[in-house]
Amino acid sequence: MDNVIGQIDRALDATSVIVAALGDSSLAAPTPCREWDVRTVLNHTVGGMHVFAAALSGTDSGADHESDWLGGDPQGAYAAAAEVDRAAWHRPDALDNTVHSSLGALPASAAALVHLTELVVHGVDLAVAIGRPDLADDELCGELLATMQSRGGIDQFRGPGVFDAEIPVADGEPGHRRLLGYVGREVLARTP
């Protein structure tokens, strides 16, 4: 299970590169995550990082998942949240706990996979939204996709607000495209 912590680290790092590429004008750009612009996806991601970190450490996050976590400094907010999030997952007992989330009480190992999914998918959502899918970690996207499929898939989470129906994507396509197709993102026609 230490591998998932390493994957979370990689997702935090990859998404930080994407967040660094965001300009003020891109915050209102539409994303593959229906009805959410770049700012909303980034805010949701940053909020999730704080919420998961608090749940792992048994503290209060100080705000709701969808509160305004970004303020006037989206990049700074992401960097601060990534630091808190990384520290929480690297606690010696991080994977021994039960994490209480919007999905209910989860073993920390399952919560780690949920969190990894949010980081990777929303990172790719941001990269695609700003026309920089080249910043996506295709290897990590492929690893996450393989993990999802090996654990029985995500069909129980398909539906409004989570994942849409799978969109077929050829096996030879880059990892970010295959992952987006699997979670039902409809942007594939404009994503290299």
TrEMBL record:
SUPFAM superfamilies: DinB/YfiT-like putative metalloenzymes. Residues 11-127 form the Mycothiol-dependent maleylpyruvate isomerase metal-binding domain. InterPro entries: CHP03086 (IPR017520), DinB/YfiT-like (IPR034660), Maleyloyr_isom (IPR017517), MDMPI_metal-binding (IPR024344). Gene3D superfamilies: dinb family like domain (1.20.120.450). This is TIGR03086 family metal-binding protein. It comes from Nocardia suismassiliense.
